[in-house]
Task: structure prediction
Amino acid sequence: MIRLIFAVTFLFSFLLLGIPVLLVEWLIGKRNPGLKDQSSKAIVSWGFRCIAFLTGTKVIVRGKDNIPADTAALFVGNHRSYFDIVLTCPVFPSVTGYVAKAEMKKWPLLNTWMKNIHCLFLDRDNIKEGLKTILTGVEKVKNGISICIFPEGTRNKENDTFLPFHEGSFKIAEKGGVPVIPMTILNSAGVFEDHLPRIKKTTVVIDFGEPIYIKELDKTVRKNLGTHVSGIISDKYFQLKEEFKL
Result:
């Protein structure tokens, strides 16, 4: 329980002590939005690295050379843990927002940091608002801000399984003209979810696959893009599982 206490204490301290920092970030954004993006990303990444350290989580990253340096991208990953965002955010090379559930907007201070790194809040029960969120994501990638989405739509509670990937999740890449980067996350539930309410020291592997350019795909594959990308991530997941024995 001590690791959980440390992590929660750090999170609340970060949010409270970060209030003056948010003000500074707001002032920076008035003059230089690009600088604000970079500084907010650096601050949030630092906080997440601290949480990973306090929880005793070792992160192994593979395939970062598959991330294009000259364009934004849509990162698409499997989702097993609350720690998926904590562990992936620091390894993205550029500013990357997440598609998060609309309920996260209710968390004061945390929601401001999320907005600062360009997170989008998706209302799954409102089709019209959901479409607006996707269109906002399209504009962001067109403007050079990458987006990360978990197409299963919710946190999968069964190890070594994958929920169906929602096809609509890929509209940001399709309409925005950016590549899809398959992101395989192995053993993130080993931090917390596999043994609630304790946090255990563990190793998590994050693998970035080769970019997928939707326009270059066969029409049949494009119609079943969710299944196609899910298959790529699933294959890589079990390869990593065998390699790392996790």
About this structure: Strands lie at 57-62, 74-77, 96-101, 120-122, 146-149, 180-186, 202-208. The chain is about 45% helix and 15% strand.
